[in-house]
Amino acid sequence: MDEQLEPKVALNGAAYTEDDIQALNPMEHVRKRPGMYVGGTDVRALHHLVYEVVDNSIDEALAGRCDHIVVTLHDDNWVSVADNGVGIPVGIHRQTGISTLTMVMTQIGTGGKFERSAYKVSGGLHGVGVSAVNALSLNFTSEVYREGYLWRQKYSAGVPVTEVERVRALEPGEGTGTVQSFQPDFAVMEPNEFKFEALRDRFREMAFVTRKVTITLRDERMKPIPRETTFYFEGGLASFVSYINRNRDVLHPPVYANKDVEAANSHGPFSIGVEVAFQYNDTANTVEMAFANTINTPDGGSHLTGLRSAITSVINRFARKMDFLKEKDQNFSGTDTLEGLTAIVSVKHPDPQFESQTKVKLLNPEAQGAVSQVVSEALQDFLENNPREARKIIDKCMTSKRAREAAKKARDLVRSGPSLLESSTLPGKLADCSSHGAGSEVYIVEGDSAGGTAKQGRDRHFQAILPLRGKILNTERARLDKMLDNNEVKSLIAALGTGISEDFQVEKLRYGRVIIMTDADVDGSHIRTLLLTFFFRHMRPLIEHGHLYIAQPPIYRVKNGKDITYLYNEAGLNEAELLAKALTKYKNPDRLQVQRYKGLGEMNAEQLWETTMNPEARTLLQVTIEDAADADNVFDMLMGSAVPPRRRFIQTHAKRVRNLDI
Question: Which residues are known to be catalytic?
Answer without folding.
Answer: 446, 519, 521, 523
